[in-house]
Amino acid sequence: MIFSIGITWFLGLRIVPGKSKAVLVLGTVYHVAVLFVFKYFTFALGEWQLLWGKQDMQLSIALPIGISFFTFQLMSYLFDIYYGKAEPQRNPLKAGLYVALFPQLIAGPIVRYDYIARQLEHRRESFLKFTAGLQRFVIGLGKKVLIADYLAVVADMCFRSGTELSVLSAWLGAVAYTLQIYFDFSGYSDMAIGLGKMFGFDFAENFNYPYMAKSVTDFWRRWHISLSSWFRDYVYIPLGGNKVGRLRWAFNFSVVWLLTGIWHGANWTFIAWGLIYLAVLLWEKILGLDKRAGIFTRVYTLVVIIMAWVIFRADNLSAGVGYIGSMLGVWGNCFWDDVFITQLSGCYVILLIAVTGSVALINNFFTRLSRTPYVWLRDVCLLVVFVFSLVKIVSGSYSPFIYFNF
């Protein structure tokens, strides 16, 4: 990371906006090569040997934590200078601070240089910002420890069982993982945004209640906003965006979603996950479903999201397809069984809280409460969440964030 920061800072000083394309290409090739070596080379080598029927070379390269996030931030630095959105940072320590800022270093959100460049020079800490950041941190901590980690137990049990599950058990596991990954990742983003605010930084929001989306297109306007906007501004638009012919537009769109899948990891499941969204989004564009809102579009959107998360979560493609088969009952599995009853009876309260929290109900309630004399109730609730989170952390085992893997 330190070496990449030094290379990027050096190249940034030599970029003339709109002119130094060779320098920009050099920096981009370097970062893509680093990402490929550490994240994808082992996978590519294994697939190559499998293709040729050879398994004579075994290689294991440790994946640096957060490499996908800090590499994209470093590339953002070069792009923003080239497009004239920001000035190059003369101070190498401040360039390093932009990349290695610890609250969001490991799992985002991906902070764009043009968004934070001024804050590196002129941010101001305050008591109000610190308390607001602390409150946001506690919300994220509670999401992760009190909701996501409990749902993980149900999801892991169901995905380990695979095709042996009943239809309802398979759906329970898929829904549990759908909620788990949201509360796990949005919880991390809340904690990062809160910590940043405590130090005087304002990071952009990364989630906007994605499971309230009226279409799959709308879902991707609300989910992992920093990643989708990164691909839009630095890949899709430079390729021509939608200002080109239909075939070229379809090509641009396909490149973005193939890269989105690959970005998440070196596994065919992630590539398939990206291609599923590519197909569904193209279908929505063709039929105009992205501009409609109704019961049908909302239900089908949730079904697509849940099915896609199954492929994303599965160890391999065959396991993912097999699990979806269990959800649809194609293996002749029973509709429900004792496992479903046992699991549901142990997690229905957490599921209810998670479903309520994944939409804007709780947030709207506390927003209205903050405008009344009973605003102190919000702080009491946050204190309770903080205490219970500490108890859970002390008594529980190590449970890393899901996006630490990416």
Number of helices, counting only DSSP H or I runs of 4 residues or more:
17
Distance N terminus to C terminus? 15 Å
Which shape, going by the Cα principal axes?
globular
For the largest beta-sheet, the strand count, sense and barrel status come to: none
Query: How many extended strands?
Result: 0
Instruction: Average the pLDDT over all residues and give the rounded result.
Output: 88
SSE sequence, one letter per element: HHHHHHHHHHHHHHHHH
- Radius of gyration equals 22 Å
Q: What percent of the residues sit in helical stretches (DSSP H or I)?
A: over 70%
Class from helix and strand fractions: mainly alpha
Poorly predicted segments: none
- Give the tally of structural domains: 2
Beta-strand percentage? under 5%
